[in-house]
Structures are given as C-alpha cells and as structure tokens.
Amino acid sequence: MRDELFSMDTKQELTDPDPVRRAQITSKLPLPKRFYKEAAVAERDGQFAVELDGRGVKTPARQNLLLPTRAAAQIIADEFSVQEKEIDPARMPATRLANTAIDGIVNDPQVVLEDVLRFASSDMLCYRAGSPERLVQRQTESWDPIVDWAATTLNARFILAEGVMHVEQPREALGAFSVHLGGFTDPFAIASLHTITTLTGSAILALAVAKGEISGDEAWKLAHLEEDWTAEQWGVDAEAAARRAIRQREMQAAVKILEAVSV
C-alpha cells in the first residue's frame, strides 16, 4: 500500500501542470486507504522528515521526503493528518510541491527559473484593458504600485500595453528581474515561486510575494482583478468558482511552503 501511495504521482496523468485537471483525474482513480495512525515530523541530520507511524515518507522517485525546516515538514505532516479513510493526493498540494522540488528541481533549478522569467516577458500586469473606464482605473490603481515596485526596487522597468498584442519587454528589465530570480537557490522556494507564477499568470506578483512586498492573499486578489470585475457585472459562474477554489488552495500551499523555508 505504501508503494502504491507514493508512486501515484509518477503516472503521467498526475503530472499535469493544471491543478484543476489533476483534481479531475485523481477523482476518477481509486484512492488508497489510510494505513497509518499518526503523521509526525522527525529531525534527521539537520533536515526534517515526515513520518507515518515512525516510517519515513518517500517521494514518487523513492527519495526520502526531507524538508529544510521543521515548519515546512509540519505543513506536509498536517496534510497527511487530515486525510480521513482514504488518502486523496488532490487535497495534498504542499506534498506534491515538495515531491516536485526533490525529484525534479534539485537536479536542474535553472530550467524552472528560466520558465518564471518567460512569464515575466509577457507578464499579466503589463497588459491592460482599453475599456470600460472603471476597469481601466481599477487596474491602474491596483497593478501600477506593483509595477512601480519592480522598477524602483528591482530596477526592472516593464512596458505596459493595451490589449493582448505581445509587447517586447526591454532586455534590461528582464536582465534585472533575472538577477533577483537568481537569488533563489532553495529548491522548495523555487518550486513555490514557480507555482505562484503559473497560478497568477504573473512573475512580478510571485517575486513580490517571495520578497515580502505583498502577501499571498493580496497577490491572489490582484491576479483575479478582471475575473472579479466580470463577476460583479454578470454574476458568479459556479463551475468557474469551483475551479478557482482548487487553484487557490494550490496557491495557499505554495505560499506557506515558501514562507516556511525562508525562515
């Protein structure tokens, strides 16, 4: 049973980058029964392991699930603790993030950071609506402070555009942004940074969270400004709201891990 549990994420279907798609897939699979009574954290040679009834957890690639801080390991132990009769990986976003960091990012962190930089080259915050006026004003009031922060603090001066036509960002801006990304070397922090980027569509927001300029909740709200505007005008779509709730749980887990490994 343990081998089945920890090899679940090795199936290609469960590596889908979309958390909603992953949840849909896992909902169709038979879930393993909970086989342990207690999930706890134990220190091992300066790192922190998650243990189930005293036995260490393995990643899908059969590596020890070890975290750099007790706080980070406790987040994952808590995910195991709240599982009920069955173990549902869809409800364990921090565990999946840690598996990704250990099995993938440790070996090639630069590839992941380069992907974050690609988001910055077409960052959501740089593309503004042309109308209606109230939406334009809301974007200006909400997004400009973060873009200004990137310019003044990161020395990354991004160009704003109206509409969806791609605008080439200055090499100097991307270069400056890349320097700050390069300051992240912990694989769990990088995994969190990438997750926040993909969920918000904004590397600028992700870096602002990572550097403590804004909270994860603030970044989430800023990332969904247009979606919330549409809901105000036309009402909330129930299916869209359910998908958003799944993504938000992924976001919250990434922010918690990022904070836990940055202590």
Compact summary:
It contains twelve helices and six strands. The protein has 263 residues and is an alpha+beta fold.
Structure description:
- With 263 residues, the protein is an alpha+beta fold.
- It has twelve helices and six strands.
Summarize the topology.
Elements: H1 2-6, H2 19-26, E1 39-44, E2 47-52, E3 55-56, E4 66-67, H3 70-81, H4 93-103, H5 109-121, E5 127-128, H6 133-153, E6 161-162, H7 171-181, H8 187-200, H9 203-210, H10 216-223, H11 225-234, H12 238-261
Helix pairs in contact: 3-12, 4-8, 5-7, 5-8, 8-9, 8-12, 9-10
**Spans with pLDDT under 50 lasting ≥5 residues?**
6-15
Strand content: 5-15%
Q: What is the rounded Rg?
A: 20 Å
Q: Write down the overall geometry.
A: globular
The helix/strand class is: alpha+beta
CA-to-CA gap between the ends? Answer: 35 Å
Oligomer: single chain
Question: Roughly what is the average pLDDT, rounded to an integer?
Answer: 90
Tally of helical runs:
12
Question: What share of residues is helical?
Answer: 55-70%
Question: Which features characterize this protein?
Answer:
263 residues; alpha+beta; 12 helices
